[in-house]
UniProtKB/TrEMBL annotation:
The chain crosses the membrane at residues 9-28, 48-65, 86-106, 112-131, 143-163, 169-190, 210-227, 247-266, 287-306, 318-342, 354-372, 378-401, 421-439, 445-464. Keywords: Membrane, Transmembrane, Transmembrane helix. It comes from the Bacteria. This is Heteropolysaccharide repeat-containing protein. Coiled coil: none annotated. Pfam families: Polysacc_synt.
Amino acid sequence: MEKSIFKNTIYSILLRVFNIVIPIIIGAYPLRILGPDLIGRISYSESIYNYFMIFACFGIYNYALREMSKVRSDKKKLNQMFTNMFILGLISHITVFTIYLFYVILNFNDKPQFWVLIVYGINMIQDIFYIEWVNEALENYDFIAMKSIIIRIINIILLLTLVKSKSDFYIYVLLTTFTFIANNFISFIYIKKKVKFDFSNIQIKTHVKFLVFILLISNANVLYTQLDKLMIGTYNGEAQVAFYNLGQMIITLIHPMLLSVVYVTVPRLSNIVESSEEEYINLLNRVSKYYFAFMFPSAIGLYVLAKEAVILYVGSQYIDAIPILKIFAMYLITIGFDSLFTNQIIYVRRQEKYLVKFLLSCGALNLILKFLLLKLNILTPITAVVTTLVCNSLLVILEYIFIRTKLKIRFNIFQIDKIKYFFISLIFIPITILIKSLISKILLVALLGVVANGVIYILILFIIKDEILFSFIKKLRY
């Protein structure tokens, strides 16, 4: 029996809230306690660690989600696919961990990042048991959400209890590892009751080719934001990474929740794409409208209230992050388009080889621009994110041209029923300017800005009888 996309979306949003939003909100506490220097050390260490994790994960999550969605009704094939993916993950994680450990010992043995990187090495090993792709393929979003709520609550209690000063820096780093370990092992035990190992059809070589493509597609941020943080940390210092990372982190408060409606429909789209083109296009149009109805007001709202968001969240010690956050708000729109094009069209249509070319081309351009900034001695967090925004915008343009001309899919992203949400959201700018001209208190400006902009946005949608608003209201009522 097919599970409701609407209910899956609600559960998925709950998952994003307790996996990302709650840690970010509570994250203001360690940001204030530890300060830009120590938080910058963590962010810089993460940028190094993430480069290795890209190869350890090997693109298995996205590939396995798609492939298991196709065979989920066949128990034997499901077990065989799970076994193949788990073996590949085991091999890739152990291999990369060995290389990572040697790299850290040789290059950071006498540096302040050493023990942070060692702790992250524990994360890499236990990530072998990260098989949430099985739960998503089977649409077990209720279990994922409830499990995450419990683990996050425990994590919050431990954080507030154990981290009291800068001397508790390593306790804070260890707590993040605890969260990952608990999450992964609980999911593994739950899944093993439903899916078994079946070694009767091991086809490692068959999957490797596709996984290489997915590896590059799923980790484009290596040549984008991860590259930014690595270069900023190397040439500008750890504190500057903290300002950059704060801007990026705040948009992760929004983006994963927006992506919920995208990810929960990937299994369904993968199932219907070959059987019914019309049904596929209809679902694609419907999901994109839902997505844009929330994405555009979120991005514009974040832009106009960037100052208030930073100061209320972590205080004036991070005030240098305000202009960075404004640019990230615009970046949110480009990654929104990219997520839609990649996950629901190009990826579902198995056209990864073309996407790889686009990613590498735009990523290489971003790398060139970064070195140009460095050569001109103008590499800063602001100029870094601007060049990343430009390159990601170019990526989106290339993807859309490919979808319209090569794939010839009848999907117009610029139809008024989709893009109208952007133009309606622009009204936030004069409204917020008016509020700021009348009120000086940061908290009051933020509250009135959110409420006034939100109410007027919904009111306009109600007046024009927007189908997404009325559909949402109807589903909530029933």
